[in-house]
Structures are given as structure tokens and as C-alpha cells.
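Input C-alpha cells:
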């Protein structure tokens, strides 16, 4: 494999160590997990015995998975339009984890390569790594964590049976599900994820769990692992989990809010201790301003499903407007300082508009790309917004530069098509194949009733 990008990986020793540790934990099979451009997690599985070999040679998957749609239809782009071609899924042995709720199984995120050992240009995880590297050249690390909201219930036709109907955050809801909850917390902790909080959430059948922040690729990997663990624990309790943006038409949906902060080895959290707004350093302000400026185009990545736009509404704490503000739950970007005494380490920004239809690698990679563009241009933030942007008269919103985020996937696609920042960062193949899938899903949704759309997406994520 001389000369290929695989040659530098030096993964054999890590694969041997992972195989030994997993065997000791009783693992017999490994699910290799990749997320496609539609946000669907696809798996190919191997016996543990093959992990070492597969870490070098990968397992095959057709290139067309870069143009797969949420309903398993396949679209095309000029360069991805036929049955020929094979990519290799190469697991990351250092990110393999024994699944606590699926005894005998381990979970491994993958990178996608071609058969010559070069990174497949539409590989989301490699895209994220490239963005992390760009930030590292400025000696900055993005630390982040996804909040995970989901619907818990039973998948029974014609409609799912919700686990609860509220009250949100209540002891009434917790009590009958406390067995499920403690099993979930145990499983996540056994997998090495630092659980921060768990609660019954606001919407019908909804719960939420959050985990500790970490490096960008690790946080995206972990987001998949958290979701798989929730599915696994739910299955053991005879329940089903859905991460779809909206599970019932008209109800508050499932968000996948991303909390992020920027770290410098010497200066610490760059959101703190500067002369910018609310104490941000100049670099952090420019990064956040870059994300804010790119938000309409980013919508196609962070709210990529047709049903994402049924969730992304005012008054749902879903971040439907392009503004930022301290602890403002209606702003797309909520600035969070946390409790006095912890602020040097806890201050972060929460991007609320994201939902779990978003491929977490593309989501975090695109956020970094937007932030880097902001730093490159030395952008400054507009004044913070503390009120509900939906409550402001339209002229005042316009005067303050507050925009309603796209109201449909079609509109989001149009905004992304214009984004030089995202095209340059993703590269043509990833950018074009991603947009092709979004256009195709939007086309397929035309003239479909809300109810029908929600049903079609309910159990896909
Ligand atoms: N479920 C809301 C959403 O769709 C978020 C509620 C919250 O702020 O936790 O994003
Ligand atoms: Mg929540």
C-alpha cells in the first residue's frame, strides 16, 4: 500500500490491543458503523476475529451509499451514477467499544477509503478530521458534546404508542421508566461515556441524555454510540427509540443541540477572558460570528430532512432564527456561561438548530468550516439578542440582521448551493453528493401530507 493515505495509519498494534480487550469483555462480533449523507447509520458486521485484518483491508460497500436516501432509494450525481465501484470501510480500532446493552457486540466507527487506500472524498469522518486539522494549525481545539433527545415508545402500527404524555421533566414520568433510565445510565457509563444528565423531556414520549464534552471526532463517534446504546437498552425493555426530528405532527421535536468551546493550550477556553462581547476573545468571537453568518446555508447539513422543518419552528426552543444571546433558548446560538466558579472551564456556545437527522461528522465539520471562515475574515458579532426573536416586529428583526432560518428543505438546499465556504471545505464530491441526496428527498416529498411525511421518517433515524 506504499504511497496510499492508508500507509501512514499504523493501526495494526491498536487493532491487536482492541481485539484482546474486546475478547476479554466477551465480544464476538463488531458492528462497523458509517453514517450516510441522508443521516442514516448503516452497519456491516464482522466476527471479532477479523478486526485486525479489516483494520488494514476494510470491508466493501458500494460507492452509491454516498447517494443513498432516507427511504433507501438511490439518487445519482454525474460521478456517482452506476453500480460499479467499491469503497472500503476501515474501522478505527481506538474508537471500538463493547456495547453494554448488546452483549457479545462491539461498535466501531469507520473511515471510508477507496481500494487504492486513499480517503474516499465523500467520507464524512475524514472531512471532520480535515477540519480539526485546519483548526489545529491555529493551535486551537474545538471541544464539543451533543445533547440527545429521543422518543421512547412502542413501534405499533398504525401509530406509535408513546411511553408518556408528560408532564415534561416530571417525577410522574420518571417513576415507571426509572428501570429503563438506570439501565441506560449504567450502560453509557460502562461504555466510558461521562453521563452528565438524564431527564424526561417536554414532548410526548420524549427523554434526553447528555454526555461530557470531548474532541470533535470523538464527540461525533460518541453521538452514534449514545444513540445505539439507547436503542439497545430500549430493546431490552421491549421499547423502541426514535431520533427523528418530529415524531408527531404539530408536537415539539427532537433536537441534537451541539455545545462547543474553543481551547488554546496556554489560554484555555477562548470564550472566556477576552475583550469581546460577554468576555469572548477575538478569535472565539470571529468563530461564533462565522457560524452565525453561515447558518442559513448550514441548515441543509444540520437540519437535513424534510421533516426537520416541521421541528425548526419558533417557540419550540429549536433555534429557528439567526441570532445569538446569553441563555436565549429561542436563538440559534445560545451563549452559556454556567455557574459562577466554573466559568473558566464551562463557558460554551450551544447551537440549537441541529436535529439528529444530521450526520454528526458533517454537522461538526461544517460548523468548524464556518467558524474558520469567520476567523479568516475577522468577523465581529452583532449585539446579543435577549428577547424572543419571533416576538420582534419584522422591521426590527431585519434591522438587527435576524433572519428566519429556511422554512423548507428546498430553501435550505438553495442556500447551501450558494455557500463557497462549505463547497471549499467539503470538496466537490462530498458537497455535490450530499446536495444531490437533499434535493432528491425534497423532490420525493412534494405534495405529501405532513402526517404522511412524519410517518415515513419516524423510524429511519
Ligand atoms: N426539543 C427541543 C428541540 O427541538 C429543545 C428543548 C430544549 O431546549 O431542551 O430542539
Ligand atoms: Mg432538551
Amino acid at each position: 500500500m506504499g504511497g496510499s493515505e492508508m500507509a501512514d495509519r499504523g493501526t495494526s498494534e491498536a487493532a491487536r490491543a482492541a481485539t484482546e480487550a474486546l475478547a476479554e469483555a466477551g465480544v464476538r462480533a463488531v458492528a462497523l458503523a458509517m453514517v450516510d449523507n441522508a443521516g442514516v447509520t448503516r452497519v456491516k458486521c464482522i466476527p471479532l476475529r477479523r478486526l485486525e485484518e479489516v483494520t488494514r483491508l476494510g470491508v466493501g460497500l458500494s460507492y452509491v451509499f454516498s447517494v443513498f436516501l432516507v427511504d433507501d432509494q438511490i439518487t445519482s450525481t454525474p460521478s456517482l451514477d452506476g453500480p460499479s465501484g467499491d469503497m472500503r470501510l476501515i474501522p478505527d480500532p481506538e474508537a471500538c467499544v463493547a456495547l453494554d446493552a448488546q452483549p457479545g457486540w462491539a461498535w466501531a466507527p469507520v473511515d471510508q477509503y477507496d481500494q487504492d487506500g486513499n480517503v474516499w472524498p465523500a467520507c464524512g469522518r475524514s472531512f471532520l478530521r480535515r477540519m480539526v486539522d485546519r483548526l489545529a494549525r491555529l493551535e486551537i481545539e474545538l471541544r464539543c458534546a451533543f445533547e440527545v433527545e429521543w422518543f421512547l415508545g412502542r413501534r405499533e402500527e398504525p401509530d406509535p404508542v408513546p411511553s408518556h404524555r408528560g408532564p415534561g421533566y416530571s417525577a410522574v414520568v420518571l417513576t415507571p421508566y426509572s428501570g429503563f433510565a438506570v439501565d441506560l445510565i449504567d450502560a453509557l457509563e460502562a461504555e466510558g461515556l461521562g453521563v452528565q444528565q438524564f431527564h424526561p423531556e417536554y414532548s410526548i414520549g420524549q427523554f434526553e441524555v447528555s454526555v461530557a464534552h470531548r474532541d470533535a471526532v470523538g464527540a461525533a463517534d460518541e453521538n452514534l454510540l449514545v444513540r445505539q446504546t439507547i436503542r439497545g437498552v430500549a430493546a431490552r425493555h421491549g421499547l423502541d427509540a426514535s431520533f427523528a426530528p418530529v415524531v408527531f405532527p404539530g408536537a415539539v421535536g427532537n433536537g441534537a443541540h451541539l455545545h462547543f468551546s474553543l481551547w488554546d493550550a496556554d489560554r484555555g477556553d477562548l470564550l472566556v477572558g477576552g475583550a469581546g462581547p460577554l468576555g469572548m476573545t477575538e478569535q472565539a468571537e470571529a468563530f461564533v460570528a462565522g457560524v452565525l453568518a453561515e447558518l442559513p446555508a448550514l441548515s441543509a447539513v444540520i437540519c437535513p430532512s424534510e421533516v426537520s422543518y416541521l421541528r425548526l419552528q419558533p417557540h419550540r426552543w429549536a433555534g429557528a432564527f439567526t441570532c445569538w444571546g446569553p441563555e436565549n433558548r429561542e436563538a440559534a446560538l445560545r451563549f452559556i456561561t454556567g455557574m459562577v466558579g466554573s466559568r473558566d472551564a464551562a463557558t460554551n456556545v450551544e447551537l440549537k438548530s441541529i436535529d439528529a437527522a444530521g450526520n454528526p461528522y458533517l454537522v461538526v465539520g461544517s460548523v468548524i468550516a464556518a467558524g474558520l471562515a469567520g476567523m479568516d475574515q475577522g468577523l465581529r458579532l452583532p449585539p446579543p439578542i435577549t428577547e424572543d426573536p419571533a416576538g420582534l416586529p419584522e422591521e426590527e428583526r431585519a434591522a438587527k440582521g435576524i433572519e428566519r432560518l429556511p422554512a423548507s428543505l428546498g430553501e435550505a438546499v438553495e442556500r447551501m448551493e450558494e455557500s463557497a465556504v462549505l463547497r471549499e471545505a467539503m470538496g466537490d464530491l462530498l458537497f455535490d453528493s450530499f446536495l444531490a441526496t437533499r434535493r432528491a428527498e425534497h423532490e420525493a416529498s412534494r405534495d405529501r401530507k405532513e402526517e404522511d411525511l412524519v410517518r415515513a421518517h419516524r423510524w429511519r433515524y
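The mean pLDDT is 95. The chain has two domains: 3-120, 131-457.
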